[in-house]
Amino acid sequence: MNNPSAGPSSKTKVGSSQSSETSFKRKRGVFQKDLQHMMYGFGDDPNPLPETVALVEDIVVEYVTDMVHKAQDIASKRGKLLTEDFLFLIRKDLPKLNRCTELLSMNEELKQARKAFEVDEEKLASTE
Amino acid sequence: MQTMKQSKDPFEVAFEEQEESPPESPIAADENETQTPAAAAASGQGDDVGTSVPPSLPSTTTGAAISIGAAGPIVKSKEEDEEEDEDNMEIELGKFPPSGDPDKMAKMQTILSQFTDGQMNRYESFRRSGFQKANMKRLLTSITGSSKISVPMTIVVSGIAKMFVGELVETARIVMTERKERGPIRPCHIREAFRRLKLEGKVPRRSVPRLFR
Known about the structure:
The complex is a heterodimer.
Chain A: H1 32-42, H2 50-75, H3 83-89, H4 94-127
Chain B: H1 10-18, H2 31-35, H3 37-44, H4 47-56, H5 66-76, H6 82-95, H7 102-113, H8 117-128, H9 133-144, H10 151-178, H11 187-200
């Protein structure tokens, strides 16, 4: 099975000419490594079964796909897809909603921190 | 998955490769202990702490102490620069964002201090694991068809997806205890867990009517 478009090496995507393709054959095992750690963290074995990881990946991709489609439906009235559309989708699911707002505010804080860091660096450079 | 032409198990190879990057490869020190860390932590603590640990640990809601590790998923998503990872983590630990409850933070600290090695290992994996930003971005781009996927959107979707994985795995473990089975989670458990989540309405269903039934 020497299909050049499939296989683990395609994950790293050196040539991004196929970035708009939606062939799932190419996407096998994209999240495999991340998922192994994640499943262990949530309660699975330290070495989850490969077929389990593959199934979870399929389910997650389907979940994200369905959610994005729903978000697009909501956003189609306005035109552009925004982050707020996803937040609207999960508004009933409080743990997820809280987590997302937390992540977003942390992202903002990090951005501010990085900006401040750069300003300080400039100051140091100019005083020297 | 792929053909195991290599001499080793593909996961072993993957775990060895993983040595270079920050998240440690979870090695099974003692399987029984890591089996139910939440339950073990609950039994180790007092009752009031114990009842709050299992639900709050996996689904990080407003936990203030989580703010330390909340940098985890975001930090890890910048995996281009490994050193930056460490620096960012230290910035976060030093900043100690006051967005949280000092009570909750103190509680969290007491719990964390009493973790066994296996529990700490698992907790670390829980905190630091996440979807690669690049991969998620690629997936989102292919789904939406549009080119511009903002960084916050990637962060939000990654967070939601990670919590969904958590729901799947936890429900699968519940299914396993009901069936009195042990060991690694098998696909049949995941399928049953997925079915239950659908019944609970936690999975977005397409409202488009199916043409072919």
